[in-house]
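Q: Okay, next protein. This is DUF4440 domain-containing protein from Flavobacterium bomense. I've checked the sequence twice, so it should be correct. Can you predict the 3D structure?
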Amino acid sequence: MRKIILSIVLLFCSHLSIAQEKEIKAVLEKQRLDWNNGDMIGYMQGYLKSDSLLFVGKTGPFYGWQKNLEIYQQVYPDKASMGTLTFDIKQIKMIDSEHAFVLGAWNLQMEKGEQKGFFTLIVEKFKEGWKIVVDHSS
């Protein structure tokens, strides 16, 4: 009987994890679509709108949703400069039921060349859905 109960619990947890991964991928896909439509505000909805949001890039770390938005707007002031973004999600690892680690590659194709690199994210589940709370992009 214990084996049956354990099997049911493991099956339920596996199903839950797959559902959570689909939800996380949906957030990233919406970001990709918003970026490619030139909608920076829409793209930023994938991030936690908080001063505690941490972004780490090649110039170092900084905090805050608003700061992140301002930097993106300076670097990519219009749709043409934003180019076409693609993601390749390599791994989503559930830390617990409300946190996940995401590893992926990004590629930005622009008229004057391309930029690409890797990212690691920590995403957290809130009432309104999954949000990126830490983004380390190179």
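A: Here is a summary of the prediction. The two ends are 50 Å apart (CA to CA). The longest strand covers residues 113-126.
Q: Noted. On to the next one.
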